[in-house]
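User: Second chain of the day. Same drill as before.
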Amino acid sequence: MHTRLNQAQPYALALFRIVVGLLFACHGAASLFGVLGGAMGSGSIPAGTWPGWYAAVIQLVGGSLVVLGLGTRIAALISSGSMAYAYFKVHQPEALFPLQNGGEPSAVFCWVFLLLVFTGPGALALDRLFSRGGADSGGEDRAREQASAVTV
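Assistant: Same format as last time:
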């Protein structure tokens, strides 16, 4: 059973990355363009408004890059930092816990993107097409497989 789960891990990680990136990009699109209900249920954020408009740009661009698996680690790091900033500057001054201050989405996105910084994009990422060895390089995956074979 562990072998099957280990074989599916890169694909599960890719699905996780795609879903999270899509949710994040949709949040940015809602804030920037007023689609999907708009920013907090009303239209769009005026261009250049600090920090909301810039956060929405990071959400749209960062989420799109994460969905595609293109520059995933850097996009995830910037997105994680953006959500940490949002939590500590906007939500945390209202109350201590995320449940009390409405900061659950910011806190969860922050930690999810930080996880992607360390795990990488998984399978089905455009990063693999632009890597030095091409789409079939798999150096990191082979090293991980060898390490897991030793521990199994």
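Helices lie at 2-33, 52-68, 72-91, 98-101, 104-119, 139-151.

User: Great, on to the next one.
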